[in-house]
């Protein structure tokens, strides 16, 4: 390694010639100062190709004034390269991040020079690549020449982050603070998304997520989770509290147990200081960290990624807006597919339901012309917005459309439904969607604890529950049907089921308790009341799956319905029960219903009167 104060024309001529390809280090470790020294002498060369993934900070090489001497071929687009591509003087090569190292190794993108940032060497002559190992590691191994910016500000990270001085041609000592990515504060939308995503994360899950407002909200919603693992292509400030508080301890990971695995780090000085000399972090190359087969070796991998838009079949657009390329494929597909391979894994796309202005839906009937599908409709299990969780795995096109419309912004639901009806994806009986149940709060699903094992949630019934309700009905015995419906119906058609789940929640609230085990979801109980306007009363009814009776489901539903009715200022609730339905009578009595005289010997009338506000 030859240390120089500045790289002049002679040094550049020794390692570079016309037509060569130059790799530039990634993310927060982009060696901008050294590349600027190259640009100062770029008129010595012709047809130089620069290549890199995302880089933070300035990208002067993407400016139009250099286009006669070099051309950028970016594998992921930030702001500067994005504008250059849109104006035609740079290129974009879509590639899975896990496969970028193979492009260097197999000669599809042979590298002549790699320019990177490193720490000062230790006593044994090893420098650390610091906060960006990702594809830098492969670039260093396969480039003919390596030039480094030695930066004392660079954190010294562990894992496979080291390069020996014997592998380096030239080094320039330039001490500059590492580029920071400010922490984005959460807002109401991101907080609601975070709360919904947290419901899909079980204790012992292994996490992958990025940086930004939504990932930060998700991480802040995991403060009550235990024994989480971390295997993520990147880490940022949001993980620090969970690591310090022990929520993330990597205890149950199947590989690299006890260690947080990543390939690069972006954020503020706080996270850079946290990973510096921290043996609990392993910075490993992208060909390992992003390898779906490696990811899938851990159990319960929860891969959380975002999107520009999602269509009603579940196709995910992430790198383009129409004909304009915006970002890149990155590691989204790697981790979505890795989570699919993981036992109990959950591939999740999380995004706001609209653009910032609120005028454009990000749940769309069809993908915009020119936009590219990054993640296919067969890869994603869940799509989460601030309006809930759409479960897609194993769902038909009709069921997917209904699930996704349910999590779209209410202003766009009728439009989305009309669009899919035009193509007969949903039957003609499917009409406008339910209103939200405001009394439930901003997050319309709540995890509940029952006196039996399992993961249970209470939430409003949705139009997409049509098939779930049908299956629930056919699980009933004849006795249950007789006690609930007062006769013995033999059929619950899809159309009938639709009428029972697609209700006006602002008038006749309908709730269900569901069991979730992995991707399995099943209705265990349903409760509702029908509003009687003439008397300002509600008639309550509920039914519980036979094998779930005695665990408090009916009482939970009735209490929640009473709360809703009280908020709506109803005067009374009534229930009509067959005399032999002893369990229901006892349940109602436990929540302070009393018997009301009835002229019908075949039923018992139970009533609950709300306290007067006087």
UniProtKB/TrEMBL annotation:
<dbReference type="InterPro" id="IPR000182">
    <property type="entry name" value="GNAT_dom"/>
</dbReference>
<dbReference type="InterPro" id="IPR037171">
    <property type="entry name" value="NagB/RpiA_transferase-like"/>
</dbReference>
<dbReference type="GO" id="GO:0016747">
    <property type="term" value="F:acyltransferase activity, transferring groups other than amino-acyl groups"/>
</dbReference>
<dbReference type="InterPro" id="IPR038460">
    <property type="entry name" value="AcetylCoA_hyd_C_sf"/>
</dbReference>
<dbReference type="Pfam" id="PF13302">
    <property type="entry name" value="Acetyltransf_3"/>
</dbReference>
<protein>
    <submittedName>
        <fullName>Acetyl-CoA hydrolase/transferase</fullName>
    </submittedName>
</protein>
<keyword id="KW-0378">Hydrolase</keyword>
<dbReference type="GO" id="GO:0016787">
    <property type="term" value="F:hydrolase activity"/>
</dbReference>
<keyword id="KW-0808">Transferase</keyword>
<dbReference type="GO" id="GO:0006083">
    <property type="term" value="P:acetate metabolic process"/>
</dbReference>
<comment type="similarity">
    <text>Belongs to the acetyl-CoA hydrolase/transferase family.</text>
</comment>
<dbReference type="Pfam" id="PF13336">
    <property type="entry name" value="AcetylCoA_hyd_C"/>
</dbReference>
<dbReference type="InterPro" id="IPR046433">
    <property type="entry name" value="ActCoA_hydro"/>
</dbReference>
<feature type="domain" description="N-acetyltransferase">
    <location>
        <begin position="456"/>
        <end position="611"/>
    </location>
</feature>
<dbReference type="GO" id="GO:0008775">
    <property type="term" value="F:acetate CoA-transferase activity"/>
</dbReference>
<dbReference type="InterPro" id="IPR016181">
    <property type="entry name" value="Acyl_CoA_acyltransferase"/>
</dbReference>
<dbReference type="Pfam" id="PF02550">
    <property type="entry name" value="AcetylCoA_hydro"/>
</dbReference>
<dbReference type="InterPro" id="IPR003702">
    <property type="entry name" value="ActCoA_hydro_N"/>
</dbReference>
<dbReference type="InterPro" id="IPR026888">
    <property type="entry name" value="AcetylCoA_hyd_C"/>
</dbReference>
């Amino acid at each position: 390694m030859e240390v120089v104060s500045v790289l002049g024309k002679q040094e550049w001529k020794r390692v570079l010639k016309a037509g060569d390809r130059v790799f530039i280090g990634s993310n927060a470790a982009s060696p901008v100062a050294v590349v600027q020294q190259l640009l100062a002498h770029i008129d010595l060369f012709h047809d130089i190709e620069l290549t890199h993934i995302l880089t933070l900070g300035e990208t002067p090489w993407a400016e139009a004034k250099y286009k006669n001497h070099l051309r950028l071929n970016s594998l992921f687009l930030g702001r500067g390269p994005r504008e250059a591509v849109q104006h035609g003087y740079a290129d974009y090569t879509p590639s899975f991040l896990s496969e970028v190292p193979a492009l260097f190794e197999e000669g599809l993108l042979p590298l002549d020079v790699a320019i990177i940032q490193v720490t000062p060497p230790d006593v044994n002559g090893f420098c650390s690549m610091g906060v960006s190992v990702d594809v830098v590691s492969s670039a260093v191994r396969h480039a003919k020449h390596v030039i480094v910016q030695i930066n004392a500000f660079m954190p010294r990270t562990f894992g496979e982050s080291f390069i020996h001085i014997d592998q380096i041609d030239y080094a320039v000592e330039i001490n500059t603070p590492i580029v920071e990515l400010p922490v984005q504060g959460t807002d109401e939308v991101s907080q609601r998304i975070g709360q919904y995503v947290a419901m899909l994360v079980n204790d012992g899950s292994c996490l992958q997520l990025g940086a930004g407002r939504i990932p930060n909200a998700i991480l802040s919603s995991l403060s009550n989770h235990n024994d989480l693992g971390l295997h993520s292509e990147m880490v940022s400030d949001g993980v620090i509290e969970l690591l310090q508080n022990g929520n993330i301890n990597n205890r149950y990971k199947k590989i690299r147990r006890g260690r947080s695995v990543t390939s690069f780090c972006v954020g503020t000085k706080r996270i850079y200081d946290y990973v510096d000399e921290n043996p609990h972090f392993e910075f490993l190359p992208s060909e390992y960290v992003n390898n779906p087969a490696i990811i899938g070796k851990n159990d319960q991998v929860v891969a959380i990624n975002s999107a520009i838009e999602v269509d009603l079949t579940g196709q995910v657009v992430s790198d383009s807006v129409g004909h304009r390329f915006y970002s890149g494929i990155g590691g989204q597909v790697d981790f979505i597919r890795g989570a699919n391979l993981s036992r109990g894994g959950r591939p999740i796309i999380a995004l706001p339901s609209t653009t910032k202005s609120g005028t454009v839906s990000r749940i769309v009937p069809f993908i915009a012309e020119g936009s590219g599908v990054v993640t296919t409709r067969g890869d994603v299990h869940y799509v989460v917005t601030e309006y809930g969780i759409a479960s897609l795995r194993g769902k038909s096109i009709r069921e997917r459309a209904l699930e996704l419309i349910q999590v779209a912004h209410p202003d766009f639901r009728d439009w989305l439904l009309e669009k899919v009806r035009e193509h007969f994806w949903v039957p003609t009986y499917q009409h406008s969607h339910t209103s939200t149940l405001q009394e439930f709060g901003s997050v319309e699903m709540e995890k509940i604890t029952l006196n039996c094992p399992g993961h249970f949630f209470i939430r409003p019934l949705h139009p997409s529950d049509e098939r779930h309700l049908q299956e629930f009905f056919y699980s009933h015995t004849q006795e249950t049907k007789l006690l609930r419906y007062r006769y013995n119906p033999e059929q619950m058609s899809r159309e009938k089921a639709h009428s029972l789940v697609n209700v006006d929640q602002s008038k006749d609230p309908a709730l269900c308790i569901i069991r979730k085990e992995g991707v399995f979801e099943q209705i265990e109980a349903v409760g509702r009341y029908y509003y009687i306007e003439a008397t300002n009363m509600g008639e309550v009814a509920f039914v519980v799956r036979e094998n779930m009776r005695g665990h408090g489901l009916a009482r939970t539903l009735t209490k929640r319905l009473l709360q809703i009715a009280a908020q709506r200022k109803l005067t009374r609730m009534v229930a009509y029960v067959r005399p032999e339905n002893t369990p229901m009578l006892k349940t109602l009595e436990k929540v302070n219903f009393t018997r009301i005289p009835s002229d019908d010997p075949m039923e018992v009338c139970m009533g609950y009167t709300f306290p007067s506000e006087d």
